[in-house]
Every structure is written in structure tokens, then in C-alpha cells.
Design a protein that fits this description.
WD40_repeat_dom_sf, WD40/YVTN_repeat-like_dom_sf, mainly beta, Methylamine Dehydrogenase, Chain H, WD40_rpt, 4-stranded antiparallel sheet, globular
């Protein structure tokens, strides 16, 4: 007699009030009161990263129950994408509505880890809203895509504090998703999905028909 499958259990998750209460609902700028909208989210075992409409990144440490804030200097613009990575150091990449991309190398209390917050900027290649970010597992490569179809590769040297960026691919429609593994970048756009082989710089389309 075949054994019966265990019953399906529905579990209700309550809102993360401890997180939401640490983020202001509005800020004062001069005589104006500006509402704060949450615009981007990523999580891992260590952090919850939340981007906002005021250009502020809220980073909640799950182990220490602490909220920290990071921002771009200058123009206050909406964050459109955030991507966390835990490797030897903890990293978070942030993209904005105008095409700015920055990487924050976070401070760690563990021995041998990074002791000073550092920021790397992907300079001036994207000119439109960032729609996707993807890390290599070791944190040395970051790929960013925007809503005009541009994909930029950034090589990071965390020890030397260097970030070199270049345009590697340009599609005719918006990038909606990126994923990277073993020298292959998976790219999804509004029209198609493809594999970009980063060593050979060749493209292989997944499927034959364009998306409608």
C-alpha cells in the first residue's frame, strides 16, 4: 500500500515590523515633506537590503538586529535594484533610476575581514534605469543591465580598491534578469533569453521564437 503524502501546511508570516519601523515613511527636505517608497529588495542569511525612492539603502543585519543606512552623494534619486553577496567579504551592489551603479564593501567584525566601509562606482556607462544586477560567486565580477538593453561588466579588485568597467553587450530591448555562473551570463530581455559566453564573447539564443 502506498504511503499517504503528508498534509500541506499553510503558514502565515506576519509583516516585519522591526524592519519597517526602522525605515522612515517620509523625510523633510527644506519646507517639503517627501514620502519614502520602498523600491528594491534582496536578502541572504546575513542581511536584508531595501532600496528606497529617496536614494537611501537600508541594510538590516539579521545577526546583530541593527539597521544601517548608505546613500549616493549628490542627486537624490530612486534605487531600482539591489544585489547582495556573501563571499570573503560582504558586498552589496546598488543601481539607480539614472543608471548609477555602486558597490559597498561592508565592515565585518570577524578576524581578517574588511574593517572599513568602501565604495566602488561603475562610472558613466549606463544612462538609464538599472533593471538587473548579477555577481560572480567570488565577488570579483559584477554585471549590470539597464532598461535600454545595455549590459556592463565591472571587474573589482577589492584589495587594490579598483573597479574597471566596460560595455559587453547591447540588446534592442530592456534587460529584465541576469545570472552568472562558470563564465556564462544568462540574460533575459523583454524579447528573448540568451547565453553570453564571457571568454569567447559569443551569444547563444535560448529558444527560436521571440517573446510576444
Amino acid at each position: 500500500m502506498a504511503s499517504l503524502a503528508p498534509p500541506v501546511t499553510f503558514k502565515e508570516f506576519c509583516p516585519l515590523y522591526y524592519l519597517l519601523n526602522a525605515i522612515p515613511t517620509k523625510i523633510q527636505k527644506g519646507f517639503r515633506s517627501i514620502l519614502v517608497y520602498l523600491t528594491a529588495l534582496d536578502t541572504n542569511g546575513d542581511y536584508i537590503a531595501v532600496g528606497s525612492s529617496i536614494g537611501m539603502l537600508y541594510l538590516y543585519c539579521r545577526h546583530l538586529n541593527q539597521m544601517k543606512k548608505y546613500n549616493f552623494e549628490g542627486k537624490c534619486e530612486s534605487i531600482t535594484f539591489v544585489k547582495l553577496l556573501s563571499c570573503f567579504d560582504d558586498l552589496v551592489a546598488v543601481g539607480t533610476a539614472s543608471g548609477r551603479v555602486a558597490v559597498f564593501q561592508l565592515v565585518s567584525s570577524l578576524p581578517g575581514r574588511n574593517k572599513q566601509l568602501r565604495r566602488f562606482d561603475v562610472a558613466g556607462i549606463h544612462k538609464s534605469s538599472i533593471t538587473a544586477l548579477a555577481w560572480s560567486p567570488n565577488g570579483m565580477k559584477l554585471f549590470s543591465g539597464d532598461d535600454k538593453g545595455k549590459i556592463v561588466y565591472s571587474a573589482l579588485d577589492l584589495d587594490q580598491g579598483i573597479c574597471n568597467s566596460s560595455l559587453v553587450l547591447e540588446e534592442p530591448s530592456s534587460i529584465v534578469q541576469l545570472d552568472y555562473n562558470q563564465k556564462v551570463l544568462l540574460v533575459s530581455t523583454l524579447q528573448r533569453t540568451l547565453l553570453f559566453y564571457t571568454e569567447e564573447k559569443s551569444v547563444k539564443q535560448v529558444g527560436a521564437q521571440p517573446r510576444k
